[in-house]
Amino acid sequence: MSAPPEPSSVRRLLGLAGPPFAVAMGVIGIWYFVSEVALSDGQSFLLPPPHAVFQSGVLDGQHLTELLEGLRATLIVTLVGLTISIILGMSVAILMYQFGWFESTFFPYAIVIQATPIIAIVPLIGVWMGFSFNARVLVVIIISIFPIITNTLFGLKSIDRNFINLFELHSVKGPTRLTKLSLPAALPSIFTGFRISAGLAVVGAIVGEFFFKGGEEKGLGRLISRYQLQLQTEQLIAAIVIASMLGVALFLIVGFASDRLTRSWHTSRRETG
Amino acid sequence: MSTALSFNDVGVIFPDGTEAIRGVTFDVATGEFVTVVGPSGCGKSTLLKVASNLVAHTSGQVEVDRASLGYTFQDATLLPWRTVQRNVELLLEFHGVSKTERAAIAQEHIELVGLTGFENHYPKRLSGGMKMRVSLARSLAMKPQVFMFDEPFGALDEITRERLNSELLDLFSTEGFAGLFITHSIQEAVFMSTRILVMSARPGKIVAEFKVPFEYPRRDELRYEPDFARLAGEVSEALRASSGEAGH
Predict the structure, then answer these.
(1) Is 80 exceeded by the pLDDT of residue A2?
(2) Does A173 touch chain B (CB under 8 A)?
(3) In angstroms, rounded to a whole number, what is the distance separating the alpha carbons of residues A81 and B37?
(4) Judgement on whether residues B195 and B238 belong to the same structural domain of the protein
């Protein structure tokens, strides 16, 4: 490919952000068309126009406070669950890598956890653990741990045989090999797992809140459930947008961290310019 | 000259029943540079893996001081997340050399392979030849008494390969290791070695041996001299005979 030499950063940003921005404009246009033209006055509650959503969801102080509190509660559940998923998932993957019997014994159950629809487990968790914070965190862990286990394991297993020979030649095993070879070599895959799990963790937190309405916390999921029941469509859409932004933000943060840690050396990173 | 590495009637049969090498006997003395040539898959690399104990031999005896063994693989095997400096320090780190000492030894060997100024580069920014030089520096930093090379320049272009051949011979002269070199290039074998061993197709046996009479240091022009061509021709003939029905 013959890229033009050194495009200015403004032009590059435009090239990068332009097309998605155009899509957003298009979507908002269609949205306006549907809510202002296609729907009759009596039906307009089904899809209030964007400015109405913005007004009642963001400009209205009471609703904004409510949404921000919801965001805060959801964020805490998400982060706690995701952190536990990362620690637990990586530990499990490392054990599976080190001990074949551990993998053959437990990997099938990792698949079972992944394959069972989260909605189907949530009621049972509610029965066992009530509507507590811990129950919500557990939902997040269940939904987000599998990509971390599989991607970490994949990264560890993909280490070039020559590197392993080099370390074996010098009898370097165990924790030293893990920190000096296995984990850094697997880092790009590990981060792929984190990225997928970050989005799933938000889903898990909201699903948990949606079902566990009896507790103290006022998460986004609970607000979504209430807005739905009370047909507060403006706030409902605002809550959905915020929830989606939370997922995107986490995805970007993990991506940024991954980039910072691996950009200098990892070959599959796209070169800029 | 003392023996640095010795194989006595060594055989390797893999767990799946494949016989890789059979009855291999040879010595490498200090001050020698021995090259093994042979058809693909004849077990040349297995010799090095046996010497370094990466593969266990199933018969015969191997004598070598494994603590002073250098080993360069087919690719440079540089850890991509480490800079040149930190890659050269790696083996020293394994053997508990202190941080300041490591840095000094690494610096010295980076200079030895002509890469001063590239200490903080990551491998992805280096050419194939430069990566191989870093790999050589990493092994040399351990002051190996026996230095084994498993087709180290096979993936490089002709010009780079010839330049690295000369550089490696310079290092051979100054650093005083015994060399055991694997290649499938006869030119390379004749240019580098004091002695050439020809291996047969699997199971690999040593079927011919050639002494290379040329004095070190060897100039690039040696490659175009009649004596060089004659010896290369003889090795080539032995190699063809050893491959048996390898013709397509």
Answers:
(1) no
(2) no
(3) 58
(4) yes
Tokens of B165: 């051949």
Q: Taking CB atoms and an 8 Å cutoff, what residues of chain B touch A162?
A: 73-75, 77
Whether residues B140 and B159 share a domain: the answer is: no
* B153 and B165 part of one domain: yes
Single out the residue of B68, B104, B111, B67 nearest to residue B89, CA to CA: B104
Structure tokens at A233: 């469509």
CATH match for A49-259 among 3.30.420.40, 1.20.1420.30, 1.10.3720.10, 3.40.50.1480: 1.10.3720.10
Residue A162 and residue B74: Cβ atoms within 8 Å? Answer: yes
Interface of B with A (CB under 8 A): 52, 54, 69, 71, 73-75, 77, 79-82, 90-91, 93-95, 122-124
Are B60 and B170 in the same domain?
yes
User: Which CATH number is B233's domain given?
Assistant: 3.40.50.300
DSSP 8-class letter at B224: G
Strand partners, B58: none
DSSP B124: G
A184 touches chain B (CB under 8 A): yes
- The residues pairing with B146 across neighbouring beta strands, listed in sequence order, are B69, B178
Total number of domains constituting chain B: 2
Instruction: Tell me which chain B residues have a C-beta less than 8 angstroms from the C-beta of A168.
Output: 54
B90 is in which domain, residue-wise?
Answer: 79-144
ipTM over 0.85: yes
Question: To which H or E segment does residue B72 belong?
Answer: strand B69-72
More confident residue, A10 or A34: A34
Question: What pTM did the predictor assign?
Answer: 0.82
The answer on B196 and B83 residing in a single domain is: no
Amino acid identity, residue A1? M
**pLDDT single digits (tens) A45-60:** 788 888 888 888 778 8
